[in-house]
Design brief:
The complex is a heterodimer of chains A (about 150) and B (about 300). Chain A is an alpha+beta fold. Chain A contains two helices and nine strands; from the N terminus they run βββββββββαα. Chain B has two domains: about 60 residues; about 220 residues, ATP synthase, F1 complex, gamma subunit (Pyruvate Kinase, Chain: A, domain 1, 3-Layer(aba) Sandwich), CATH 3.40.1380. Chain B has a five-stranded mixed β-sheet, sandwiched between helices. Classes of the chains: A alpha+beta (about 150), B alpha/beta (about 300).
Chain lengths: ~150, ~300
């Protein structure tokens, strides 16, 4: 084994998607921007935005995983992703993501209408924020599917 | 000696019970399968999360979020204890309750009063009836629909209690699922989150500590990471408990079915003997009658 590789673990509450997979690079979208981690990276912790996470296997294949938020911990020998939820490209339910997107859009629109009339209560506001997060997630999933298709 | 009819009736009754226990056994087995899978997957996630938070917490003492610090002035502790809503699960509830009681006693020896946060009807009924500790809150009849959102809600409440400075410590008391036949009642510290070691060890600043870079600001990230870790602990304790409950019920029902079988065997034996005795008696009567007639 060369020292040019490390282990990747991707887990979510209901799934252990990848456990200690040897990889040579991992890339993700953190709150402070995209980054790529290579073996020997300094210890690093950040939270993830909904979107894609990619990694390169030892054979050089480029693989992708969709994550919807969470945390990523990078250590010199190991990368651990604690995702809210995570999916392989084949696993995403496009229809469901579409439906979630529509639902969120309707809610956001309604909230904006209320806001225009000055009737927005705090609970509405909380709901608006939740809807925005949901929209974000759905969009990230859909974008991920698109990207994966075009790459193939 | 019981009459033939009585024995027969008894056998029928026990057979009915056996049907019931067998059905309950199967229901518990089915539930167990689904919860066991979920628990085992979640356990891994929870462990990774816990490792991360203790690692960071130890290094991040200087960040000083109130949830990492303890409040030694408080004279009370809160014990969150997980029991089941339904019975017929062997010694499952008894074990959790007696562990909780021993915790209460040991805290009392340290001069600390205990409050309880009870999950499950069985625990609530017990502690409520004997007034052994003050129940601040309880969740009854919801262990079946307890999900992660609920865990988060509970956690937020617990965090509030802790922030108010009422409690020196909050601990969880639940049954960890080790295997089908081994369930261990576990006591786990919930808050303060990290072992209070920084008073004794030299302070390690962020920059020195293996250069753990944290983006965005450590404090912001910790503020998000910590509540999540806590919800995970609560949810995990619940999943473990529910899994253990189902396993315990499955076992209890299995034992009950076996006892039913034993009882039926014994009763059938008694029934046969009684019948044979009756037949013999009748034969004797007939033979005696015939002898008498022959004169």
């Amino acid at each position: 084994m060369s020292d040019k590789q490390f282990k990747l673990t991707v887990v979510s509450p209901d799934k252990n998607l990848l456990v200690d997979i040897p990889v040579s690079a991992v890339g993700a979208r953190g709150t402070e921007g995209d980054f790529t981690a290579m073996p020997g990276h300094i210890p690093f912790l950040t939270d993830l935005k909904p979107g894609e996470l990619w990694y390169r296997t030892n054979e050089g294949a480029h693989k992708m995983v969709s994550v919807s938020g969470g945390f990523i911990e990078v250590l010199p020998q190991k990368v651990t992703v604690l995702a809210d939820s995570c999916e392989l490209p084949g696993e995403i339910d496009e229809e469901r993501a579409n439906r979630a997107k529509q639902r969120a859009e309707i809610k956001i629109k309604r909230a904006h209408e209320l806001a225009a009339k000055g009737l927005l209560t705090t609970s509405d506001e909380a709901e608006l924020r939740r809807a925005e997060i949901k929209l974000n997630r759905a969009m990230a999933r859909l974008k991920f599917i698109d990207k994966y298709r075009s790459r193939r | 000696m019981a009459s033939l009819k009585d024995i027969k009736r008894h056998i029928v009754a026990v057979k009915q019970t056996q049907k019931l226990t067998k059905a309950m056994n199967m229901v518990a087995a089915a539930k167990l399968r689904s919860t066991q899978n979920r628990t085992e997957r979640f356990r891994f996630y929870a462990q990774e999360h816990y490792r991360l938070i203790t690692e960071i917490g130890r290094r991040a003492t200087e960040v000083g979020t109130p949830l990492l610090a303890d409040c030694p002035e408080a004279k009370k502790v809160l014990i969150m204890t997980f029991t089941s809503d339904r019975g017929l699960c062997g010694s499952y509830n008894t074990n959790v309750i007696s562990k909780t009681l021993s915790q209460i006693r040991s805290f009392r020896d340290q001069g600390l009063a205990s409050d309880l946060y009870v999950v499950g009807r069985k625990g609530y009924d017990y502690f409520n009836r004997y007034r052994l500790a003050n129940i601040v809150e309880s969740i009854v009849g919801e262990t079946g629909v307890f999900d992660y959102d609920k865990a988060r809600e509970v956690t937020n409440k617990l965090i509030e209690y802790y922030r108010d400075g009422q409690y020196q410590e909050i601990i969880l008391c639940y049954t960890a699922f080790k295997s089908l036949t081994r369930h261990v009642v576990t006591v786990e510290r919930f808050l303060p989150l990290v072992e209070d070691t920084h008073h004794h060890h030299e302070m390690v600043s962020f920059e020195e500590s293996q250069n753990y870079t944290i983006e965005p600001k450590p404090r912001e990230l910790l503020n998000r990471l910590i509540p999540r870790s806590l919800s995970i602990m609560v949810y995990r304790a619940l999943l473990e408990s529910v899994t253990s409950e189902n396993a315990a019920r499955m076992q209890a029902m299995d034992n009950a079915s076996k006892s039913c079988k034993d009882i039926i065997t014994n009763l059938t034996m008694a029934f046969n003997k009684a019948r044979q005795a009756a037949v013999t008696n009748e034969l004797l009567d007939i033979v005696n009658g015939a002898e008498a007639l022959r004169g």
